[in-house]
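Let us work through a complete example step by step.
Step 1: write down the sequence.
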Amino acid sequence: MDYWNHKVPLLASRAFSSSARQLRNKVPEAQKLFQADNGLPVHIKGGTGDVLLYRATMTLTIGGTCYSVYWLLVASMPQKKA
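Step 2: predict the structure and record it as tokens.
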């Protein structure tokens, strides 16, 4: 029992230590990129990865909508009597 009472504060102090490596703030660079007035929509300004992600999202959204409408139409039709 004394083992955990001793180790937990030590581990917690290491996790939140100020001697950990400092991370570089990339937000100002991203702000410059996305706020640039280059005529591109914001969902394309990030490059090829953003374009692919946008197109995949739109494809899945439109495909899912069409799939849902199809099954709603199928469910709304009267069943054939055998």
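Step 3: interpret the result. DSSP finds three helices and no strands in the chain.
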